[in-house]
């Protein structure tokens, strides 16, 4: 068993959102992700695992190729393997609890328009061509 207090685990960075892995259990991990106002994730997917986000505080919008979903406290979203998604934080700090499980949990990033320093890796280029 693993037990955590999300309030005690929060970490914030004004430069980019913080994803703090709290632990790993057979084929998965669980994370607290802290977002300052306006921060945006890379537009990415996990080809071989499912990713679940639960909004603890704050909120924003989750974008996928099929549309947008408002994320509010108490809400959660499930991304099946391979679903492209991007989280855009709203006007206040947000904390999301994330669970990934399945095979290889590595992300493939299509783009990250809000991060001018981001460069695609060869594995990203190959995956999206």
Overview features:
5-stranded antiparallel beta sheet; Jelly Rolls; 3-stranded antiparallel beta sheet; mainly beta; 2 helices; 10 strands; single chain; globular; 129 residues
Give average pLDDT, whole number: 95
- Count helical runs: 2
How far apart lie the N and C ends?
41 Å
| Total E-strand runs | 10
Q: Can you summarize the main beta sheet? A: 5 strands, antiparallel
- Count of the domains: 1
Strand content: over 45%
| Low-pLDDT regions | none
Helix content: under 10%
CATH class: Mainly Beta
CATH topology name: Jelly Rolls
Q: What order do the SSEs take from the amino end to the carboxyl end, as H and E?
A: HEEEEEEEEEEH
Rg from Cα: 14 Å
CATH architecture: Sandwich
Strand order within the widest beta sheet: 1-2-9-4-7
Q: Superfamily at the CATH H level?
A: Jelly Rolls
| Shape, per Cα inertia axes | globular
Structure classification: mainly beta
Task: Give a topology summary.
Elements: H1 6-9, E1 18-25, E2 28-35, E3 43-45, E4 49-57, E5 60-64, E6 67-71, E7 76-79, E8 86-89, E9 94-102, E10 108-111, H2 122-127
Antiparallel strand pairs: 1-2, 2-9, 3-10, 4-7, 4-9, 5-6, 5-8
Concise account of the structure shown:
The chain is mainly β and 129 residues long.
Describe the structure.
This protein has 129 residues and is mainly beta. The protein has one domain: Jelly Rolls (Sandwich). 8% of the residues lie in helices and 46% in strands. It is built from two helices and ten strands, in the order αββββββββββα. The protein has helices spanning 6-9, 122-127; strands spanning 18-25, 28-35, 43-45, 49-57, 60-64, 67-71, 76-79, 86-89, 94-102, 108-111. It has a five-stranded antiparallel sheet, with no helix packed on it. A three-stranded antiparallel sheet has the order 6-5-8, with no helix packed on it. Strands 3-10 form a two-stranded antiparallel sheet. Strand 1 (18-25) and strand 2 (28-35) form a beta hairpin.
